[in-house]
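Chapter review. Work through the record for Protein kinase domain-containing protein before attempting the end-of-chapter questions.
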Amino acid sequence: MWSLGLVAVELATGLPLYPGNEDYDVLKFIIETQGQPPDHVLDSGVYTEDYFIEDKDKQQRWTFKTDQQFQYETGYESLETRCIKLTRLDDLEQIIMFRRGPEVEAFLGEGGFGIVAKCRNTTTNQAVAIKVNKSDPDILQQAHVEIFILEQLRRLDPDAANIVQWNGFFHDGQRVCLKFELLDQCLWDYIGDRNKQGLPISEVRPILGQITNALSHLSSVGIVHADLKPGNIMVVNRHESPIKVKLIDFGLACPASAVIPGDFVGTVGYCAPEVMLGLPYNEASDMWSLGLVAVELATGVPLYPSENDYDYLKFIIETQGQPPDHVLDSDKYKQQPGQRLFVSLIKEMLALDAHQRITPSQVLRHPFFSPGLSNRFPCINIERPY
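Structure tokens for Protein kinase domain-containing protein:
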């Protein structure tokens, strides 16, 4: 019957549950997944002492030999041969769902962490996005931190908070897979579809308002996103109006109380000066990033395009964290109140001193979001060189 149980798992997943080149490996896999047999069972085993050490002074007398102990005695080096690695049998449900349910339809993105795939559950016909992390130990640890953050965010309504809906995780071998709702396209692509000409106020305001709302909700649970950029803001459906966006990718997020000064996080070109300089940072660093996103939405191009830290800091210093006043105060900006208010808001978002930076609640009360402000004009007029 034990063998039939293993056959059943292999039928359902296409993979053996406890593959091994030696009896020691198989026993180790079983113990790691289901725990150790009770002492009274081990007492009667003919080969128990080959794999276990007895200590009569302990409550659990038998202890499974470590890889090093077994190799020292036998010369055999234990090997990890499992494609499915479980910490408990209950996790089989998620594995079976992934291997038999979702079918990979497309790869949506790739990064240092791994890949994001569009998958479809063949039972429900529902399309989802699955983030498949690499099995590298550092990435595995970061995935567990991301799961911790996502667990905290479950206290929030993802639609009301403008954050991506997380639907749990499962393991595929040594890889951690995170399940999310499927969204349409990121803001980089959305801007690119408009030939990087910048968006009108009628689109910038709702996008900016919704991401500010997301940051406000993150702040309410003490979370810093730490990697806010157009690539991590998704349009829910580009064909729907009014536009709705959600914040994604909490792979670098952390509790504000756990920030470690000197740990570089974020993306060059969007992270706050205090992060670059190794200073303590908090939720205000996300507001700096949102200010740069706002400029890019309005102009179609990044304010501080950089490939390295030095250039990024140089651009910030050269502009004092904002466009020069003689440009911002020129007549062409004074012609439209919306443009003046937008630039005013950007200045407050890009305050070099994090303590002076505007907060999410203050952003939402800024005159730029006044219902009476005209939506007919672009945020900023730029004459492009050809």
